[in-house]
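Practice problem: Membrane associated serine protease, rhomboid family
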Amino acid sequence: MKYFSVRLSILILPYVLVSLLFIMGYTFLNWFFCIYTKWVAIKEMYIDFIFPMLISILIVYFIIRPRLHILKLAPGKDTFGIQFLIALSLCIPTVVAQHYIDKATGTLTKVHRITEISKLPESKYYDVTIFYLDTTHLGMYKTSSVSGKYGQYYNFKLYIAIPMFNTAKDTNGFACKYWIGEYYSKQIRNSLSPDEKARLAKEFLRESERQFRTTNFSNFTYLEKFRKSDDLEGYEAAIARGFYADSKDVIVFARRQEAFESRLGTTFEWIFYSWGIGTLVISLIFLFAKLNPARITKYKKGTLNTKSDLEDFLILLVPRKDFFTTPILIHLNVLIFLLLFFFGFGFMHVKGSDLLHFGANFKPLVLQGEIWRLLSSIFLHGGFLHLLMNMMALFFAGLFLESLLGKWRLLLLYIVTGIAASLASFIWYDATISVGASGAIFGLYGYFIAAIIYQSFPYKMHSGFLYSLLAYVGINLVMGLIGSGGIDNAAHIGGLVSGFCYGVLFPVEKKK
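Answer key — structure tokens:
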């Protein structure tokens, strides 16, 4: 095998070292800051999945990717597929390790009565002998959300919190510290009509009630204390809406029916299985991939250009004299989304109630005088994919239009058409939460159509951008017309029409 020592020193050993350091280092930091000291209280979904995924991508990009330039690739090919596999091989064992460390570090604390928990050192698992469940004074909270890459699913979820006391005599008052949490869920198509959704929601509640009444909630082997998570927030919302609404500093448990010793299953073994399988696959790829001798020499001398297209793209997002407003708008939208994320308001999906709190467009509230929502809503997004799609569309629209309009006219166009889109949504819908920059982006595309009609662009600029314009506008409008959920067609049409009218009323000088 040619260049075995090169493959080993530049590709395989660095990958093995980085993967081991990442898995062990991240797991230790999770244990120390989140489990042992509890200095960091972040939702477990982010700690156990999202952060490992993001860090894996960063490790591949900054550490592994530059080394992949020594590979000899066919014309037109790149290393994206290999990078994806490497990121996956880093992420999976790390995720498994977080699941293991969370379960393994907890000890089972035996208590005679439920209230004895507050007198003992904090634990994760409890074996309770005497308790009383007050199933007549439940806390309930129902919620719904949209999911799927294209918002094609609509999810119902019902959280039920059951108060726990020592005995039935302790139910006097309006507060309870200890609760058992149970939830029921159902997923339907988001393209269904509002009436059909309402019918299925009622059916879901009836089925949940039937399951609740046939469940013996006293049947458990031990209780597991919930960590900070979306589910814990759901149970806390249920408690706040129940009979014991005055409860403070509540502790919510999940019922576990398996033996405590079997809670880990084969999780520990799968840390090594998943790492071993990933390492084997990546090592085989590195061993049998063709290498470029000239690039190997340059890499060893430190003269190999490892700059990526992504770096060139990111440079475009730096505000400069001739491209200023578009990057600033993208940064502002991303910053607002990240702030909501870091304060625990969701990543892949942001709850409607949270969006309302931070300025979503909602007709009943606008009618009460909160007119500012018509503007604030265009800087909010319902999830990461929603943000990503809109920012890509904004980038390409601004890339062409800012050179034509200038930074201040583009900003004015964005705000005016964004507000017009919000007004269209306000007029059309009676009680729909509307957020997103897509209405304003449709306004930019509407202006572009007017500019084409008035021949403000050189002909060579028409074709490529026009194709992306037609694709973006057409796909979004068609999906809205056929009833795909999560598409605010009123805002899209309002933005498109207002942008076109703006272009007709205030055209730019024809460029030659």
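Discussion: Residues 4-36 form the longest helix (33 residues). Students who identified this feature from the tokens alone can consider the problem solved.
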